Amino acid sequence: MAEVLSQSEIDALLSALSTGEMDANELKKEENQKKVKVYDFKRALRFSKDQIRSLTRIHENFARLLTTYFSAQLRTFVQISVASVDQLPYDEFIRSVPKMTILNVFEPYPLDGRFLIEVNPNIAYAMLDRLLGGRGVAINKVDNLTEIETRIMTQLFQRTLESFQEAWSTVIELDPQMDDLEVNPQFLQMVSPNETVVVISLSTAIGEASGMINICLPHVVLEDILPKLSVHYWMQTKKKSRSTDEILALENNVRNAPLLIKAELGKSEISIQEFLQLGIGDTIELSSLIDDPLLIKVGDKPKFWGQAGKVKSKLAIQVTEVIEEDENNE
């Protein structure tokens, strides 16, 4: 992006040109010279801006799903939002992670490789405290996780993978499976140190505790689906239209579906005392007359008026009138 000069700098430049301290031709020569841009091969930018924007949208949805999930599980105020999305070498990411933290490693089938969700100890222990009946106090003692604490945290974060799967469903149908829960990043080597990874940082607040949840996605794992992360791909993706055979099969299935039709002979209201005293041979008087039309219902909705009769010694109802939609609503 071109540098923007202040008014005082513009005035000084014009003054230097008018007094001859600077030559306009020399300035033009400098502009025509090739610009040299420094490129760090250790920090190779392998994700395009378009792909970064798509990853941001996906994980904004993931953050909303996590907010709902943790709010229900912990029964306290939870707020999660995307703070930043950066691409950097894996080695640089690992060095930025605290010495002792919560590292959830999972495999995103059918993709080949592993993803990582790093949870700040303040957040992880606030969650654990809430699950065990506390107020959500963050106690940073991650260096000595007990077996019970490890089990509880594994189960809690295992279910977050369902939200991760739902957030990615617009791009690919994933079946993520928890692989391991680590506390020391030095023992974790998912990819080579120079491999480019995308790190999505989620700003998280749980009650009075706050911290970051970092999601690490290696480029080598996402490489096969990178074309699907472009807006151009999303714009070209159309809903698959049904074939004529599929439409006919669906229509036949609907036509052959069973439908409950019933005719009401009439209604009557009696007390519970009268109901309890009913016996064989007793008669209940209905509200309708013998000549009144019978109400025919399809499902539970009134659709027709009819008249009772017989067809070949079987009881039958003859439809005499169709109930209009307005009349039905009334």
Automatic annotation (TrEMBL):
Domain of life: Bacteria
InterPro entries: CheC-like_sf, Flag_FliM, FliN-like_C, SpoA-like_sf
Membrane topology listed for this record: Peripheral membrane protein
GO cellular component term of the entry, any: plasma membrane
One term of GO molecular function: cytoskeletal motor activity
Subcellular location: Bacterial flagellum basal body; Cell membrane
Segments forming domain Flagellar motor switch protein FliN-like C-terminal: 253-323
GO biological process: bacterial-type flagellum-dependent swarming motility; positive chemotaxis
Pfam families found in the cross-reference section: FliM, FliMN_C
Record keywords: Bacterial flagellum, Cell membrane, Cell projection, Chemotaxis, Cilium, Flagellar rotation, Flagellum, Membrane
Protein family membership: Belongs to the FliM family.
Name of the protein in its database record: Flagellar motor switch protein FliM
Protein species of origin: Anaerobacillus alkaliphilus
Gene name of this polypeptide: fliM
